[in-house]
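Quality-control log, excerpt.
Job 1 of 2 completed; input and output follow.
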Amino acid sequence: MTTIGTTTLGSSLTVSDMGFGAMAFTPVYGGIEPEKALATLHHTVDLGVTFIDTADVYGDGDNERLIAKLLKDRREEVTLATKFGIQGDPRKRREGGVSLRGDRAYVHAAVDASLRRLEIDTIDLYYMHRLDPSVPVEETVGAMAELVAAGKVRHLGLSEVTAQELAAAHAVHPITAIQSEWSIWSRDVETRIVPAAAGLGIGFVPYSPLGRGFLTGTVTDVESLGPNDFRRLLPRFAEGTLQRNFGVVDAVRAVADELGATPAQIALAWLYAQGTEFGVTVVPIPGTRSAERVEENAGALGIELNAAQMAVLNSARDHAEGARSMDPQWVSQGRES
């Protein structure tokens, strides 16, 4: 079994080398029994994956309530990250069913609500989930800094911001981590945001590092996409582009077969190698409902890719097609200039 060590995000937040994305337990991926979800969380921590990521919007707060059950007995073992800023259902944002808030009053109200649901006194890493376009990022981060001063939050993070927004925020209060989508399919962040994070000494926490279903077998063709998936939100899942994206899977599988590893392990190992290349600390947060899958993902930490294998994987970007959001402004890609 792979030994899972620790690393440092920013200047002082110690986390496990790999994190866990608890969004996997939300209704967007279908129903799951709370007892099974909690058992997976306990097994995850048992393995040494102790950096747990959630958000107040996941399951309308139910995800935080689930994690509270884990923290009840294991708070000292877990480094917890949660987020604020999205109101409503992100799947319905094209219909106006979601809003973004970053005003001071909401920042304070949101953290208090999360602390109640989590049944804890302090959040280790608190992210702005999305930028409120009506509020300067400096104002939102200023309000977040007040949470640090009050002892409600230890470290600050931002999700899906541009390099310029990251620099502006960091000038107000040190930012420990940035979270954005980054995978073999989604590499736009490598142009500006990743270098900016590296230059400022800010850690990078990639979400959806396995391609949102491409490497887990949940997406095999257009017909396999159900009513609770991201088909309406992700152009790469659209009919006409989906099959082309499977060319990336072929490249990953070729390297996996060569090393006797799984495609998921290779995709994660590639991310760690990219972090080294860019000089930024990378801690991906793959999510799963299966305890066995957590063990599989952790195996990536024991894989070293050589130059030839990296070349094969990097060339896979030629097969990736489709933006990572129907709404360009929803992610940093649409605002980066």
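Job 2 of 2 completed; input and output follow.
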Amino acid sequence: MKVNEHIAQAKGQTLISFEVLPPLKGGGMKDIFNMLDPLMEFKPPFIDVTYHREEIVFNQRESGYYEKISIKKRPGTVGICASIMHKYKVDAVPHLICGGFNIQETEDALIDLAFLGINNVLALRGDARNFEDKFIPEKGGHKYAVDLVRQMANMNRGKYLDANLVNAEPTEFCIGVAGYPEKHFEAPNFDTDLKYLKEKIDAGADYIVTQMFYDNEKYFQFVDKCRAIGIEVPIIPGLKPITKKYQLNSIPRKFFVNLPEEFVSEMEKADTKEAIRELGIEWCIKQSKELKERGAPVLHYYTMGDTDTILRIVRAIS
């Protein structure tokens, strides 16, 4: 079933979903299953699986020179999605990015997903590689997420890259895209960022998942501004608890979000790891309860492998 169909069938009830990372290369599905098994008590209708672009590393050779090689540290997104669907009988949502693919490779990847019965995809531009200061698309690849959305929407209409195909089978992808309640860091201003988001919806996207945020008013204002410019698709809030003090600096730096002064002040007063963790959990519970009370369609938790924390939070609001 498609994400938007799950939301429609819920008839206003707030659903729970989770996002997981593929294990580091050398790990196995048991890592994913051990994390997801306890979370299945909440009956998530879908589970997202992230995709990670290749990284460039430098290995020193015996001669003393360094060799530049490209590696994927977290491969396996599609296989993990198929395994999750088989084991749990829930829908999986693979993330598909522009980086690392040309348009033909993108089409081939989408065909594979369709053959596997995976009909939900989150379309993202993706981040710059670790040695680049800005995103550089693959040669012959998409530069923006909206271009990826257009390609998927074309396939949903039976339009493939080969214009000579006759009676091509349309795909049935439900297309998700990212939204930023505090604006994407590369956008010159909030209104421009909303304009880009509207373009993705007009191109064929079916729902939005937001970047994490820690002030619910940012989400509510974001939804209101989206509605004001004609964006009517479901807008799913993304949530990630802060459980370590260093995250007060690392999360704003990496994800370009602001932390409320009240929250930061309480976290800075905490003098033990356990006190810090409890404050972070309580803040996320508070966020979750308010979002649920005010009709958020889904609460989407970025698990980052921390099952125990997510269990505490979701049990508190169930």
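Post-run check on job 2. The chain has eleven helices and eleven strands.
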